[in-house]
Write a structure and sequence with these properties.
With 199 residues, the protein is an alpha/beta fold. It has a single domain, classed as Aconitase, domain 4 (Alpha-Beta Barrel). It has 10 helices and 8 strands. The strands form 2 sheets. A 4-stranded antiparallel beta sheet has the order 1-2-3-8. Strands 4-5-6-7 form a 4-stranded parallel beta sheet, with helices on both faces. A hairpin with a 5-residue loop joins β2 and β3. The longest helix has 9 residues. The chain starts with a strand and ends with a helix.
Length: 199
């Protein structure tokens, strides 16, 4: 069995190179709307328990994940420094906070990734170290962009709680509600690996 890194997430592959299990290696960031609690996490303090989902930022658009002009025009490592800097109209998450915090998972409220569906939003999260995104609902295009980048969108709260506690989880639990094509892309480790295999 070999291991691949997707941000700060360990992805364990079976003998044929397919994704078998995943485990959070970094920290879990609870995107709480309580600015003081959010700042504590960004400063290195872990919360003792998960806040109620209703207390997490909801309807975080792709524009909040990666700001419009000029941020969304980068396609390199700079994206990971700029991620979420416009959350809550700015001033909460400073450039570099997510990456420096060593986070591998973000937990947010409903409606994650709504808005323009800009594809670099998923890439920005990945460059910041995020490999797992939990929200009760994730905008379909953004969800597919996460999957295409080899990342793991999660909608089930109990499963997200296990992942946040660094429990190693079988990929079957993550993809049992996905369509067949998304299932296959996840198992291959992202769209590029899937397309290479098809070729």
């Amino acid at each position: 069995m070999s291991v691949r890194k997707v941000g700060n997430v360990d992805v364990f592959l079976d003998a044929d190179g397919f994704v078998e299990t995943i485990q959070l290696r970094g920290r879990a960031l609870y995107l709480t709307s309580d600015a003081a609690l959010l700042k504590k996490q960004l400063g290195g303090e872990d919360l003792k328990s998960m806040p109620p989902v209703d207390d997490l930022y909801s309807h975080v658009s792709t524009d909040a994940i990666i700001k419009a002009n000029p941020d969304c025009y980068y396609y390199d490592d700079r994206l990971g420094t700029l991620v979420l800097r416009s959350l809550g109209n700015g001033g909460i998450v400073e450039p570099g906070d997510i990456r420096k915090g060593g986070f591998g998972m973000i937990l947010a409220g409903a409606g994650w990734g709504e808005g323009s569906s800009r594809e670099v939003a998923a890439l920005a999260l990945l460059y910041a170290g995020i490999g797992i995104v939990f929200a009760p609902s994730i905008a379909p295009i953004h969800r597919q962009n996460l999957i295409n980048n080899g990342m793991f969108p999660v909608n089930e709260l109990a499963l997200a709680g296990r992942l946040a506690r660094r429990v190693r989880v079988n990929v079957d639990e993550l993809i049992d509600t996905f369509d067949d094509l998304s299932n296959r892309i996840v198992r291959y480790g992202g769209l590029f690996r899937f397309m290479d295999a098809r070729v």
